[in-house]
Amino acid sequence: MSDYERRAEGVARILIGDGEIRSRICEMAKELDAAYAGDVPLLVGVLNGAITFMTDLMRAMTIPLEVDFMAVSSYGAATQSSGVVRILKDLNEDIEGRRVVVVEDIVDSGLTLQYLLDVLQRRNPLDVRVVALLKKEKTDAVEVQVDQVGFTIPDEFVIGYGLDYAGKYRNLPYVAVLDPRMYSGE
Ligand code: PRP
Fold first, then answer.
1. Which domains does the chain possess?
2. Which atom of ligand 1 is nearest to the CA of 108?
3. What atom of ligand 1 comes closest to residue 144's alpha carbon?
4. Torsion of CA 125, 121, 132, 47, to 10 degrees
5. 109 Cβ below 6 A of ligand 1
6. Which residue in 2, 129, 161, 174 is a FRET match for 25, CA 20 to 30 A apart?
7. pLDDT attached to residue 8
8. Positions of the chain with pLDDT under 70
9. Does ligand 1 have an atom closer than 6 angstroms to the CB of 112?
10. Tell me, what's the pLDDT at 141?
């Protein structure tokens, strides 16, 4: 079995290929370069899911920037958002007066982001922009600020490019739909 096949076990179908992700990220990086020209934004990556997006996005940007990370958890090993958000790791930086760019891998119910923005706004940043690689198309999501979206995707469980199922699949270079048999016990 090839390495590709081994990694692809559990993948129902590839939704967004790595080339498509790369070119969209270049566009997003250019927009950020223009929006923050002359400033030094603080990119805040939301661990763990945003690691891949964060590292590709920051390398595609050409302006000076700084990075920091927050770790929150809302899902555990389940495939549906519980709405319960825990801060597992807070920022190292003081963001008062800073221009903050929140970098998220996916906005699903919007609950994680809603909570996170509330926490960040209370620390008096100069402004906050939200950049998400993926946003699910769903009617019951909360209204939450998202300024830049890479791809709008159907409401299915997705893995890869940083996104996990029960901790696995984050290293897939593409975004894929998880085979439902992986969590239905078949
Ligand atoms: C995922 C993702 C977002 C959040 C989105 O994180 O990275 O932070 O869920 O879901 P929501 O819009 O329904 O709140 P998760 O808690 O799975 O942790 P992880 O990033 O470590 O995978």
1. 18-153 (3.40.50.2020)
2. 12
3. 12
4. 90
5. yes
6. 2
7. 72
8. 1-7, 74-84, 185-186
9. yes
10. 85
